[in-house]
Amino acid sequence: MRLKFDEVGYWTEIKIEIVKKYAKAYSEILARKFYHVYIDAFAGAGRHKSRKTGDWIAGSPMTVLKTSPPFKEYYFIDNNKTKIDELQRLVGNRPDVHIILGDCNQKLISDVFPKVRYEDFKRGLLLIDPYGIHVKWQVMEMAGQMKSIDVFINFPVADMNRNVFWRNTENVDHRDIERMNAFWGDSSWRQVAYSTERNLFGWEMKTDNETVAQAFKMRLHEKAGFKYVSEPIPMRNSVGAIVYYLFFASQQKVADDIIKDIFDKYRERDR
Known about the structure:
By secondary structure, this protein is of the alpha/beta class. It has helices at about 10-30, 60-65, 80-90, 105-110, 135-145, 155-165, 175-185, 190-195, 210-220, 255-265; strands at about 5-10, 35-40, 45-50, 55-60, 75-80, 95-100, 120-130, 150-155, 195-200, 205, 230, 235, 240-250.
C-alpha cells in the first residue's frame, strides 16, 4: 500500500514544539538518576507535510530522537504497517529504538508499561496523540496508577462533537457510543456533555467543549490518580474551531510547573 503522508496545520507544529521542549527538560532532570524512556502511542510515519507550505515536518518520533541528553530507550507504536515501515526506514537500525506494529491499547499494557515500573527506578514520558477517540481509558488509568509516567493526551473534541455529542442522541451510531464509553471509562460522560434541559424539539441540550474538557481533567486526577493535571491548551483548526485539547498529567510538581510555563508561551499565540 502506498503511503499517504499526513498534511498538518499550524497547531500540529506547535504541539510538536511543546513535546520537544518538555522532552528536553524532562530528560535533563531524569537522566541524572533514572532509566527514562520515551513512548509514542500513535507514532505515525515519522514525518508530515505542512498543509500551508508543503514542506516536510519532523513528527514527534524523529523530533524526540534528537533530544539531548537522550532517553535510554524509545518505544514507537502504530497499527498502520505502511507508516511503521517508513518510520523504521527513517530511524534505521538502532538498538535503543523499539518500533512496534499493533494496537497501542494492547501493546502499551502488555509490552511497554511492564518495562517502566516505578519500583525498578524506571520512568517514562508518554505521548497519546490519536486523530480521534481511539485510546481506551484503561491505558490512561494504568499510566496514572503506575506513578512512573508523565503523559501528554490529545482529547479529541472534534471527533466527539462530530460523531457522539448530537442533539438527537437517539441517532448516534452505537459503535461511536462504545468508542466514547471506552475512552471515558464508562457512560458518565453523558451527564457532562448534556444539561438536564431539553429544547423545543425535545432534544437534550449540549454543554460546551470547555465543560467537557474540565470534567476530563478532573477524571484524570480523581480516577486515574495523576497528582497534577495541567490546564489543557486548546488546539484549533484554520477557522479557529477547537479540534482537540492537549492535556498533560504527572505525579510531580516540577513537571507541572515546567509544562505550565511551556503551555503559557503558546496558549495565546496567533495562528
